[in-house]
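User: Here's a protein and a ligand (nickel (II) ion). What would the complex look like?
Assistant: Let me lay out the input and then the predicted complex.
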Amino acid sequence: MHYVTKKMTFCASHRLHNPKLSDSVNREIFEVCNNPNGHGHTYTLEITVRGRVNPETGMVINVRELKRIINREIFEQVDHKNLNVDVPWLEDRLPTTENLCVAFWQRLEKNIPYGELFSIKLSESPNSIFEYLGHIGDRHHCERNRSQ
Ligand code: NI
């Protein structure tokens, strides 16, 4: 099995604030990311597709094609945007790195023409990396844990 990863960066702003919680609890949970007027991050995004090599092309997926798909589905939608208000498909989601991974997965999964989406890694800073393996369903995982 082969794993092909495309990496890119984008810039965006956000504010982490859950309106169901009090202002003071929000400040306690989200700290500087709760700043009332938002703040920016330079995000690093890594998309990994896995699959077998097509003998005709010698590739799992053409990385230029993968880049075009990621640009269309993710980059052009979020780069230099305010993630709280500018992106319709992020509405009603707290724009944490974890939640962004899930939203990105949902947009990309059905658009990968060869191989299958394997993982999405996203970071706001070089020292914290968030990885989502969407094909390992959360529900399935919980059910398996319960039966153990
Ligand atoms: Ni932040």
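Summary: Confidence is low (pLDDT under 50) at residues 140-148.
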